[in-house]
Specification:
Radius of gyration: 24 Å
Number of strands: 4
Shape: elongated
Distance between the termini: 92 Å
C-alpha cells in the first residue's frame, strides 16, 4: 500500500514541476524568436541600404536617378522583406532634414519612424559617392521583452562611389 502512495506523489510532483517551468520556457522561446526577428530586420535594412546605394550610384544615361526613383525601387525590394511601409520623411521633393540627410547617432525623434514603418534617407552631399540609410522600427511581441527593450530601431547604411 505504501508503494502505490509514493508513485502517485511522484506523478503529481512531475505535473507541478512542468506547470511551473512551462510558462518560463515558452516565454524564453518566444523571446529568442523575437531577437531572431530583430536580426532579420537588421540584415534586411542593411541589404536594402546597399541595394538603394548601388541603384543610385550606377547609371548609363549620364543623368543620375532622382531620390523618388531610388525610393520607388527600394520600396519594391522592401515589399519582399516585410518592410512594406517604406517612406522618405520629407517626401520625394524635399530633403528629410535641412542640411542633414544622414540619421544622427543616437536617433532623434524626427528620425524615428512609427512601429512597423521604415524610413529611407538619401545623402548626395558628396560628389563622389551616395549614401543611403534605412531605419526600421521594431517592437517585440513578447510583452515582458517589449516592456524591457521598448521600440528597437535597426539602422542600415551603405555608401557607394558614383559611376560617371
Amino acid at each position: 500500500m505504501s508503494n502505490s502512495i509514493r508513485r502517485r506523489r511522484r506523478t503529481g510532483q512531475a505535473m507541478v514541476e512542468f506547470a511551473l517551468i512551462a510558462p518560463v520556457f515558452m516565454m524564453l522561446l518566444v523571446g529568442i524568436l523575437d531577437f531572431g526577428r530583430v536580426g532579420l530586420f537588421y540584415v534586411s535594412s542593411s541589404a536594402l541600404a546597399g541595394i538603394g546605394a548601388r541603384y543610385g550610384a550606377a547609371w548609363n544615361t549620364g543623368t543620375p536617378f532622382t531620390d523618388c526613383q531610388i525610393v520607388t525601387y527600394v520600396k519594391g525590394q522592401a515589399d519582399a522583406t516585410m518592410m512594406a511601409n517604406l517612406s522618405e520623411p520629407g517626401g520625394c521633393t524635399t530633403p528629410a532634414s535641412p542640411g542633414n540627410t544622414t540619421p544622427p547617432k543616437p536617433l532623434t525623434s524626427s528620425y524615428q519612424p512609427s512601429v512597423g514603418s521604415t524610413y529611407i534617407f538619401i545623402d548626395r552631399s558628396s560628389a563622389t559617392y551616395i549614401t543611403v540609410s534605412i531605419i526600421y522600427a521594431f517592437r517585440p511581441t513578447t510583452p515582458m521583452l517589449s516592456s524591457i527593450t521598448g521600440t528597437i530601431y535597426t539602422v542600415g547604411t551603405a555608401a557607394v562611389y558614383t559611376e560617371y
